[in-house]
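On clarity, I found the account of how folds are encoded harder to follow than it need be. An entry of this sort, consisting of the sequence and the corresponding backbone structure tokens, reads as follows:
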Amino acid sequence: MKNSVVFTGLLICLLGFFRAAPAAALRKIPAPELFYIKCTKCHGADESLKRHASKEQFLAIIKTMQFGANISDREMERIAAFLGHPDRPLFEVKCTQCHDMNRIQQARLERKKDAAVKALVERMRTMDKSGISEKDAAAIYQYLISIY
């Protein structure tokens, strides 16, 4: 009797674990965070982040490391889209003047609706010394909603 109670308890725990694991796996990790999780295990981020290339060029580079880094095809696509996004350099120059990347990511997570992100970018654009034009603001907004 005691063994069946212990076995039943273990079975319930295991079932709970296997049901919870897919939910955690389905949480969409922002592409920049995914980049840091997968790519910086083997090398620093600086070299990759300083490089400016197209999504396709980054995809070719990442494919050479895909299996060693245990990156799925979908993750590889998302990382390449992040690194190769044409507005990433603009975003980094304009936004990281005042904010670190953790603060930017947190601000995006706090503003789940695209309209809130647009309002935030517009507010930043009107700040003194931002140097963000209307055209830049539109590009930064598109970058934020597509990558984060």
Observations:
- The chain has two domains: 2-83, 88-147.
- The chain is about 70% helix and 0% strand.
